[in-house]
Amino acid sequence: MLRVTKLTDYATVILVVLAEAPGRVHSSAELAERARLEPPTVAKVLKPLAHAGLVESFRGATGGYRLARPAHAIPLIAIVEAMEGPLGMTECSGEHSTCELEPHCGVQTHWRRINDVIAEALGGITLAEMLPPAAARKAIPMTLANAPAGG
Description:
Layout: H1 6-20, H2 28-35, H3 39-51, E1 55-58, E2 64-67, H4 76-84, H5 108-123, H6 127-130, H7 134-137, H8 142-145
Antiparallel strand pairs: 1-2
């Protein structure tokens, strides 16, 4: 089964929370609450995101985190690579292969092609596209929407 790690999934969730209020500085505790993740997990995820330049961190009593650039300028490949390193479907499909079978193997070219397709797909989707639709974020509860006027 091919899947990203839980930390990469959590990173996307945290970045979506930040993207919902761009420019606003969020504390790590607030991010944990809004993302419904444990505070140590959020702290663990924020470090590589900051190192990769996806979030900015601010120290002090009013410190916290915010997106380092607009959500539409953050492709998913940047999030995956910040958390997991360069994309490599197999040992030989990455940039620095150490596979001892490489000189005798005929599938390397195909794996690299697959790797490139996945990288292109992840590069073609931005964090902004991962945001829930505006209607879902600002939905009026049905009980209020159907309430009689003046009541």
